[in-house]
Amino acid sequence: MCGLAVVIGEKPNITSREGWAMLETMRHRGPDGAGVVTFDGDRATVTRSADEPLSRGRTMLAFARLAIIDLSDAGFQPMADEHGDIWVVFNGEIFNFRDLRRELEACGHRFASRTDTEVLVHGWDEWGDGLFERINGMFALCLYDRRRRATIFARDRLGIKPLYYATRSDGALVVASEVKALLAAGVEARLDPAGIDSYLSWRWVPDPDTAFLGVKKLEAGHLLHVADDGRTKIERYWDLRYELDAEGDESQVGELRTAVERAVERQLVSDVPLGAFFSGGIDSTAVVEIMRRQMAPERPTCFTIGFSKRDLAHDVVHDDLRFSRLYSNNAAIDYREAILRPSLVESLPGVVWHLEEPIADPAALSAYFICEAASNDHTVLLSGMGGDELFGGYPRYVAAALARWYRWIPRPIRRSARFAAESLPAAGGGTLARFGRNSQKLLSHAELPFPDDYLAFLTYFDLEGRRQLYSLDFASAVDGSNPSATIGTHLDAVGSCHWLHQAMYLDLKIYLPALLTYMDKMSMAHSIEARVPLLDELVVDVMRHVSPRGKVAGTRTKTLFKQAMAGIVPTEIIQRGKAGFTAPVRGWLANELGALAQEVLSPGEVRRRGIFEPEPIQRLLADFRSGRRDTAMQIWQLLTLELWQQAFVDRTTTTAGSRDG
């Protein structure tokens, strides 16, 4: 992984200095080298240092490199073909580049390096837009074709690599791997009220929007074309389509197993040390065990974290250590375990700075600290992320099915069930409190039609909850905002599918990209490349042919995947309850983060900010302290939002964030 930056202006006044300023904000993404090229007519000027003479042009490409494949200078970017006609800056990996290289060599192309990057310039020359149908990988890239005077941006099929863009006040298009680079190029950091409304609805802002006014994300599976006259066109080059196999799911057990094995195998390509995230769940264990078999006799290094008893006492966060130890005791791996005792008050502002977008998923901190521990001697980590969305692993899929059954129950019995659920405790730790929270959340929305019943599982602030929060001025600013606007568009694409596939498709579009974004940002904060082999196109292609029952059957999740992993993953792990990759946010707020939340969400600070009314926030804090209600995730959202505003709207934590990176 690396960092790219591009500026396309209306006049030839874009300077190399802008490129170096943008790269300086992202050097954590690429500490192994950097370069800038400017294009003025037919002249391309490359600089390898900010100290070299200034160059100008209408188009500028800049790149900070994290060397993974072919560590030599032959992998320098910006990279061009042998004629200097096609240039590329590329963040990510192309996992089938060797196959594509052989195909291109058969067509007469000659290569000067062993990199996957060079496949892109020759592939564009040979196939044009058809290149993107052929490449398998995780990427965000920019290709500049001097002959056609055209620029093409692309993002991988599922959004593993981020790509942001904005139009500057002088009309220039500014594009980069991180928002910080856009700000360094002169894009103004302004809060988007509609983006904040969306954030409070979903805990992040779904693509293509952001919380920054005027800043967009290129959606997964899309291209952005920029013509010589500055006209832009966005088009989709890939989308998931469910096409069920007439032979049934049983015939696909072997296909899925083979696809996962092949995906992990080809994502092991690296010229630097690589290891894995390891939680002791079925997804990460499958990845690690296949790694172990492929790498033998070398032992893969696996990083596991646990939480202190103090933090776990306030949460029902499964302690993964029992299962990770069970596996590691019987497998030839280099197992590294740590109990997470982070200095959260000091670390959290830097984490938010690296995240750039407000993302209220506490698991981002777990990923950050795992990568910090791994960064001493590893550059690549494989992750089991994506398995829940692809294989049908989320408990909310079961809950949504239960809601559909619930609506058939006679109304008097439903009323009794709601009354019983409301009488259960919902705050604090323990299994009963967790059952109470989940039961109350399920039954409070169970009578809504799909997709409203399902979407309710993704939010902690519904429309009424947001209205109670907003100040009069901010309520006016968000009037007309519709955080669910993109939901209908996505559902139109799968409207004829089973409701479960509709729900899983929505997760792939609005939920998974946020998880992938935080994994990218948290790993790159420590100059680590995170790979997600379970999202390889080989695996995706098998799962799109699998029936809903092959994903969720009754209360059983990941049904086909569990069958496919028999003999790879220990039975105890296959049969364990769903844990999830998370963090003990309630324990953190009850302890060291409690004072920080009280400080930054105090009535005076809330009034100064002008977005919320102080009273409802004080009630959330008081209810959490007293145990009357479980408001931890709502407080976490508000705390994250305030720290994000301090970092980017107020611009107060940039220096601290830079030290963290």
Question: Layout of SSEs?
Answer:
Layout: E1 3-8, E2 14-15, H1 16-24, E3 34-40, E4 43-47, E5 56-57, E6 59-64, E7 79-80, E8 86-94, H2 97-106, H3 117-127, H4 131-134, E9 137-145, E10 150-155, E11 164-167, E12 173-176, H5 179-184, H6 193-202, E13 216-217, E14 222-226, E15 232-236, H7 253-266, E16 274-277, H8 282-295, E17 301-307, H9 309-312, H10 321-328, E18 334-340, H11 344-355, H12 363-374, E19 380-382, H13 387-391, H14 395-406, H15 411-422, H16 431-445, H17 452-455, H18 463-469, H19 472-477, H20 485-493, H21 499-524, E20 529-531, H22 537-543, E21 552-553, E22 556-557, H23 559-564, H24 571-574, H25 585-590, H26 592-600, H27 603-609, H28 614-626, H29 632-649, H30 654-660
Parallel strand pairs: 16-17, 16-19, 17-18, 19-20
Antiparallel strand pairs: 1-6, 1-12, 2-5, 3-4, 3-6, 7-8, 8-9, 9-10, 10-14, 11-12, 11-13, 14-15, 21-22
Helix pairs in contact: 2-3, 7-8, 7-22, 11-29, 11-30, 12-21, 15-16, 27-28
Q: Could you describe the 3D structure shown?
A:
With 661 residues, the protein is of the alpha+beta class. The chain has a domain at 3-236: Aminohydrolase, N-terminal nucleophile (Ntn) domain (Glutamine Phosphoribosylpyrophosphate, subunit 1, domain 1, 4-Layer Sandwich), CATH 3.60.20.10. It has 30 helices and 22 strands. The strands form five sheets. Strands 4-3-6-1-12-11-13 form a seven-stranded antiparallel β-sheet. Strands 7-8-9-10-14-15 form a six-stranded antiparallel β-sheet. It has a five-stranded parallel β-sheet with strand order 18-17-16-19-20, with helices on both faces. The chain is globular, with a radius of gyration of 25 Å.
